[in-house]
Amino acid sequence: TGVSGDGITSNTKPTISGSTASGGDTITVTVPGGEVLTTTVASNGTWSVTPTVAMNDGETELSITATDAAGNVSAAAVLAVNIDATAPTAPVAVLDASADTGVSGDSLTNIAKPTVSGSAATSGDTITVTVPGGEVLTATVAANGTWSVTPTVALDPGETELSIIATDSAGNVSAATTLTIEVDATAPTAPIAVLDASVDTGVSGDGITNNTKPTISGSAASSGDTITVTIPDGEVLTTTVAANGAWSVTPTVALDAGQTELSIIATDAAGNVSAATTLTIEVDAIAPSAPAA
Known about the structure:
This protein has strands at residues 8-9, 16-19, 26-30, 36-40, 46-49, 58-67, 77-83, 92-95, 108-109, 116-119, 126-130, 136-140, 146-149, 158-167, 177-183, 192-195, 208-209, 216-219, 226-230, 236-240, 246-249, 258-267, 277-283. The chain has 293 residues and is an all-beta fold.
């Protein structure tokens, strides 16, 4: 049931077959501690026997002789049969770290052909990954017990449930492991960003402030997204979008006097990055000179 010709099978009552020179000879197959099976060689020289008692797991050496019509007995042929009827354990399967573009271990990715990897108990076993309505991918477990496959056909957006099995050299098949992967390759919309009302010390909405560490605030389409505000030659500020879609950051390093152009992006849970929003802020912290009287 495994690799052809390796003498390994998952069948505990395996058929033994062969050929000999003379039709009509009697073949005797002796199973140590078990049955003695006999059959007659067919006219084309072939023969076969099937035990009625299950063989033990592991290797069994069978002794096979041919007896002709005159009672002459051939030298014994020895056949080693290896019974392995134990299924491998279900393989471990995960979205590979190279394709886990969001939060590690959340099985969310922006890669449409993500690598799936894992481990199995026995090197040399065959891993089969079935994609519903798509590909069937196979890999051989390496000496260190690891394996990986990469689809050649893009997965559909949304959740896909993969079925993963291990098959050993005897043909035994493990229970299936199910892995759900979510593909999200859609970038979030560019965030809205403004000089926060609490520091808009001039005309409301003009982007001018006398606060050198002004709070920047805004909104984004999806709560949980990460907002990154980049100040040229300065800080990189990050925050998480709240449940109501709002966000804000406050520099810890004073902005230079004059205009500063900030770049603001949103990154979603799958690692998709929005187009950048540009916000120009003007810092003017110099008081006017005293008026003449």
